[in-house]
Amino acid sequence: MDRSFIDAYENSGRHVAEAIKGLEPDDLMAFPVPGTWSIQQIVLHLADTEQVLADRMKRIIAEDNPTLLAFDETRWTKHLAYHDQSADEAAKMIELTRRQMARVLRSLPDKAFERTGNHSQAGPLRLQEIVEKSTKHLEHHLKFIVDKREKLGKILW
Length: 157
What we know:
The relative contact order is 0.23. This protein is mostly helical. Strands 1-2-3 form a 3-stranded mixed β-sheet. The chain starts with a helix and ends in a 6-residue tail after the last helix. It is globular. Helix content is 61%, strand content 6%. The mean pLDDT is 96. It has one domain: Four Helix Bundle (Hemerythrin (Met), subunit A) (Up-down Bundle).
């Protein structure tokens, strides 16, 4: 089995910290694109989602056909005091969670990646599918951070 998806998952964990490097608190809280999330909100959303996805992976690994609950990202952003949290700490949590989970994933036999959980909205999801979606989700949101940095005149590269 090609396990490169585990490396992609783990390696992308450091991208959030890289994407917010050098930003001031005002930059993180700015809304350079009206009607969308701030960089701060994106980073905290990614950190919260990371914890949810790691929990789903753990449940699929350790339990038989567990229920995987959906969550409302808009409500979480609105009600979980994202503006009072640390984007730097959230970025570190993402990286550390992925590093730890990658160790677990590498220890598994190939057949474990076919194990499933039952998502409350999407139905059955395989472990490998969740790992791959985790990587894609983070990369998807990083594009928004880069775009917002550009609009703030804080281009990375």
